[in-house]
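Q: Could you predict the 3D structure of Siderophore-interacting protein?
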Amino acid sequence: MRRRPPLPHSVVEVLRTRRVTPRMQRITFGGPDVARFAPVGPDQHVKLFFPRRPGGPIDVPAMPDDGDVGRWYGAYLRMPDEDRPWMRSYTIRAHDPVRAEIDVDFVLHGGADADADGGDGHAGPAAAWAATAAPGERLGMLGPQITRLREPGPHAWKLIAGDESVLPAIGALVESLGAHERAVVFVEVRDAAEEQELTSPGRVDLRWLHRGDLAPGASTALVDAVRAAELPEGPAFAWLAGEASVVRALRRHLVAERGIARRAVSFTGYWRLHRTQDDAPSEEEIAEQAEVLADAADSPATGARGTAGA
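A: Sure. Here are the predicted structure tokens for Siderophore-interacting protein:
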């Protein structure tokens, strides 16, 4: 079996920060390693490593030459607890090769939202760091990798759906569409203040959904909207991400009720309600991951190109 090349480990430095919306913080990173950043796709993600204490270590073991991520992860877990940096997955919102910069958007949660801690760092160490990050601070970074495990086959249009933790990837995906491409996009956010202006060369039907004071993951707004929607005719490719149980519900609807081919649905649980990335995956999540990998192995057209974002 052919191994992937080892993922590069980098050190990135905060250049500046900007509040995109009341609950979304954009941090621009630079540094010598960013000049060597090699993008792999519009929904690419990286692992970021946050120090457990101010000024603490951000280094992790080197990736094996054969690209064996499982062996690398074992070495990471064997690091002493006090020195092992927190690891979280984040989408690259934008890459500027001329300025040698990358942008990463962080969701900042508080109040009722603070019950969640997931792939976007809800109320966890990543969001806490991002809320006060200042120029000159440094993080470790591994990657990039592409998020989706299924590649689009021939299709007439795309369905893209997720919550605010997915907005960086949705923004990058929408911006990458060709002028001939069509997409219907559903995004769940707290309220109108969290909506962002997204531009695209393609034909995009963007539908914002407001959950109000409900905590992320506790609303059915996203699933309800997709269920009720009148969608375009013709074969579709669906890209779904966000809270894991919501993503599963969307996938079941599209496959069982809309008749979209299972292999035409790329799905990723970015985070899990009341659980963190440090918690072990559930049996259902393990089974779904095995199914995706089996499908990818059976079909060269939908080969795996990365690992899930969560």
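Q: Anything worth pointing out?
A: The chain is about 20% helix and 30% strand.
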